[in-house]
């Protein structure tokens, strides 16, 4: 099946290049992807050149698990190479998150006429179209379909089809890193988005909890992480309600200004 890429022209280009790099990198334990770009998590300062190369090839890359005490130095070194920096707080959840998610799912009742989809190669194209529309409206970038469908990486992505045929909400998680890496059993978690007209029904909480539980049941995941901006109070609230909290780490984006200018590759 031909892969599908999402987002703006430059975001699709980033995903397309990442897809083309996959045969070279997907079996290398140093590299990881959530389906947007290839990246190196918790790099050493000696790996700045490798990170810069990934940014220049794809237009952007990222570092998760960067100690906040070190992020300023990393940002300075990337800036010296002519790259633009962006950042998020890294929120994390563990066994307590799974307990909270299980309790939440046991007590949640999905509103009538909403249809749950776990995204797969059988997902209809009109659902993917609606998913992209909802995600884009919330500043969220879906990953390329080989990751969205759990083919390139172990993953679980969900969306809710609303009564009008659109996608009301989405969320998901994936094992970004190679199983033999030091983060091989930790799952990226997020893509939380809800349409304006469907808000107030805790749909993101439901899908986020479902994604976490599925990753635990299918792949044994007990550690989850995501990037949240310091001023994104809604996302911070959703994360905290599910037991995913701010940590000592930051997530850094490293951008080629020729591709992304002064903006980030995603919200």
Structural overview:
This protein is globular. Strand 1 (32-33) and strand 2 form a beta hairpin. The chain has helices at 9-25, 48-58, 71-80, 95-107, 125-137, 145-148, 203-219, 233-241, 257-260, and strands at residues 32-33, 38-39, 60-67, 84-93, 115-118, 155-161, 167-174, 186-194, 223-228, 245-255. It has a single domain (9-260), classed as Aminopeptidase (3-Layer(aba) Sandwich). Helix content is 37%, strand content 25%. The strands form 2 sheets. It has an 8-stranded mixed beta sheet with strand order 3-10-4-9-8-7-6-5. A two-stranded antiparallel ribbon has the order 1-2.
Strand and helix map with partners:
Layout: H1 9-25, E1 32-33, E2 38-39, H2 48-58, E3 60-67, H3 71-80, E4 84-93, H4 95-107, E5 115-118, H5 125-137, H6 145-148, E6 155-161, E7 167-174, E8 186-194, H7 203-219, E9 223-228, H8 233-241, E10 245-255, H9 257-260
């Amino acid at each position: 099946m031909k892969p599908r890429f999402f987002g703006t022209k430059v975001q699709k280009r980033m995903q397309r290049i990442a897809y083309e790099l996959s045969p070279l990198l997907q079996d290398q334990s140093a590299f990881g992807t959530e389906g947007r770009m290839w990246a190196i998590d918790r790099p050493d300062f000696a790996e700045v050149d490798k990170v810069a190369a990934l940014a220049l090839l794809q237009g952007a890359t990222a570092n998760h698990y960067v100690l906040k005490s070190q992020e300023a130095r990393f940002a300075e070194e990337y800036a010296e190479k002519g790259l633009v920096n962006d950042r998020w707080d890294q929120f994390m959840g563990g066994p307590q998150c799974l307990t909270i998610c299980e309790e939440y799912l046991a007590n949640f009742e999905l509103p009538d006429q909403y249809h749950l989809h776990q995204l797969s190669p059988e997902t209809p194209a009109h659902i993917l179209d609606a998913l992209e529309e909802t995600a884009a409206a919330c500043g969220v970038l879906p990953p390329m379909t080989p990751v969205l469908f759990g083919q390139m990486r172990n993953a679980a992505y969900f969306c809710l089809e609303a009564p009008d045929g659109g996608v009301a909400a989405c969320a998901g998680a994936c094992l970004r890193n190679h199983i033999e890496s030091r983060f091989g059993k930790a799952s990226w978690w997020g893509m939380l988005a809800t349409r304006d007209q469907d808000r107030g029904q805790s749909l993101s909480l439901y899908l986020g909890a479902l994604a976490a539980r599925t990753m635990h049941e299918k792949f044994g995941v007990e550690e989850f992480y995501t990037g949240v901006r310091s001023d994104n109070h809604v996302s911070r609230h959703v994360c905290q309600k599910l037991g995913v909290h701010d940590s000592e780490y930051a997530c850094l984006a490293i951008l080629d200004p020729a591709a992304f200018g002064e903006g980030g590759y995603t919200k």
